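FW: tagging you since you asked about this chain on Friday. Here's the raw sequence from the shared folder, copied in full. Didn't touch anything.
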Amino acid sequence: MENRKKPILRILAGFAAAVLIAGMLFITNSFVGNPISAMLANKAIKQYVDQNYSSLDLEIEKASYNFKDGAYMARVKSKTSIDTKFAVYYRDGRVQRDDYESYVLGMFNTLQRFSEEYSAVAKNIIAKELGYLNNKTMVMVHKEIYENPGDIVELDMKFDKTLPIRAEVTLQLDLADHSIEGIAKVLTDAHKAFAENDCYFDQYGLYAENDGMLIMISGVTPADIESGELAGLLEAAKANDSASGIGVFIKEQKK
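HL: got it, structure written out here
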């Protein structure tokens, strides 16, 4: 009787192992795709790029799988143009779309590069003039420029801070003085330092998270700073007075 049970147990064990392996493969394919689909995606994307963008001298990266939408995506970039880079999307056996029009022709890449290069300039000014060596100051081009770059922006053009492009700056640093007066002083000093270096921004913000404090300031204008009443405006905004358009959030975090 026992001898008869052994083959049955071996069969059941083998079946269980096969089910387990199949399940693992199914889960793996769900998250990272499978080699055959990846090969087909890479081939289709290359054919698509060759047919539609053969004049641009492009390099195509290997496609990666996005388990959220079941699509493969390959990044494509020019060998000669810094701003010519976009993605191609493959799903259900064919290329679905690319974002060349918005990212390249729509100047999204160019404006993003401007933001990054302007951020680097702003970081250096804050480090040199205000002494915040590890600041992470960010400059963002105003969203209306993205919607209509017009005649201001050209593909691959060199960044120039004197271009008539509206921008906002957010200081990200470790504050030594968390008081309203200390915050107002930092923003005032930054505004002065930027102006002395021919950097002009429509709005200022500040983000600090250190020593158990979280501080977020937004919507401060050059006029607010130059009024000499910035501390009072920040105090009023902290008390939920939004008339000035300034936002103030200050919270002591639990340690």
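FW: The helical segments are 2-32, 35-52, 100-105, 108-130, 143-147, 180-196, 222-226, 230-238.
HL: agreed, and The two ends are 67 Å apart (CA to CA).
FW: great, closing this out.
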